[in-house]
Amino acid sequence: MSEVRGIYTIWLREVKRFLREKTRLANAFFQPLLWLFIFGTGMRFSAGSNSFNYQEFIFPGLICQAMLFTAMFMGVSIIWDREFGFLKEILVSPLSRLSIFLGKMLGVSTDVMLQGLIIFPFAFLIGAGFGPIEFFKAIPIMILIAFGLVCLGLGFASFMKSLEGFGLVQTFINMPMFFLSGALFPLTNVPTWLQWVSYFNPLTYGVDALRTVMMGSSWTPLFPIYIDLGVLVVFDIAMILFGTYAFSRTE
């Protein structure tokens, strides 16, 4: 089996497993509805502005939230594969560990992208003012976000021996990254110390970049778009190296 074919096979397995889990697809569809139409409507009148409503403001943040939670959750696939013996089988195959990791990374990243794309039709329900051009501008940013988060999840899962332990790590990472990203509130309205803490969160730059391309002139970016993209690229490189190293040590 060639390395490329092995990567493709592992990618296809991850995508099929995601699509066959109907409950996860249903959750991917209904959870954003709750955030947009219950939480978003409740906060709309207290946090909105003259140029956009609160639902429009949190929409890019909810895309990042769905991608973050899915990326970290899917890291558990490494632990499941170890428990059921599948990981041992592919580790003794002729495939290199780098190819196995790339196959899983690409497969889980595809799942994460699907999770994010499912949310886009809701934009029409809230009257968000972006069209096909803004949609296609958002895709490369989402890919950058997905790669970094997926490698982060797979990397930590490679070190963990139990589902319970990984669940604790997952919560410890998800909550701070989400709440410090500015997904739910403008970072310009928080204390300075909290702003600086948020600047060390890579998801902050993902949310800011998505808002920049999706909200246009309605949104005043925290950073120029090239800084947002530059930070995401550096984050991706660091996480790919971390994930590859962690997976190379898994047993």
UniProtKB/TrEMBL annotation:
<feature type="transmembrane region" description="Helical">
    <location>
        <begin position="138"/>
        <end position="160"/>
    </location>
</feature>
<feature type="transmembrane region" description="Helical">
    <location>
        <begin position="101"/>
        <end position="126"/>
    </location>
</feature>
<feature type="domain" description="ABC transmembrane type-2">
    <location>
        <begin position="23"/>
        <end position="250"/>
    </location>
</feature>
<dbReference type="GO" id="GO:0043190">
    <property type="term" value="C:ATP-binding cassette (ABC) transporter complex"/>
</dbReference>
<keyword id="KW-0472">Membrane</keyword>
<dbReference type="Pfam" id="PF01061">
    <property type="entry name" value="ABC2_membrane"/>
</dbReference>
<feature type="transmembrane region" description="Helical">
    <location>
        <begin position="223"/>
        <end position="247"/>
    </location>
</feature>
<feature type="transmembrane region" description="Helical">
    <location>
        <begin position="57"/>
        <end position="80"/>
    </location>
</feature>
<protein>
    <submittedName>
        <fullName>Daunorubicin ABC transporter permease</fullName>
    </submittedName>
</protein>
<keyword id="KW-0812">Transmembrane</keyword>
<keyword id="KW-1133">Transmembrane helix</keyword>
<feature type="transmembrane region" description="Helical">
    <location>
        <begin position="25"/>
        <end position="45"/>
    </location>
</feature>
<feature type="transmembrane region" description="Helical">
    <location>
        <begin position="172"/>
        <end position="194"/>
    </location>
</feature>
<dbReference type="InterPro" id="IPR051784">
    <property type="entry name" value="Nod_factor_ABC_transporter"/>
</dbReference>
<dbReference type="InterPro" id="IPR000412">
    <property type="entry name" value="ABC_2_transport"/>
</dbReference>
<dbReference type="InterPro" id="IPR013525">
    <property type="entry name" value="ABC2_TM"/>
</dbReference>
<dbReference type="GO" id="GO:0140359">
    <property type="term" value="F:ABC-type transporter activity"/>
</dbReference>
<dbReference type="InterPro" id="IPR047817">
    <property type="entry name" value="ABC2_TM_bact-type"/>
</dbReference>
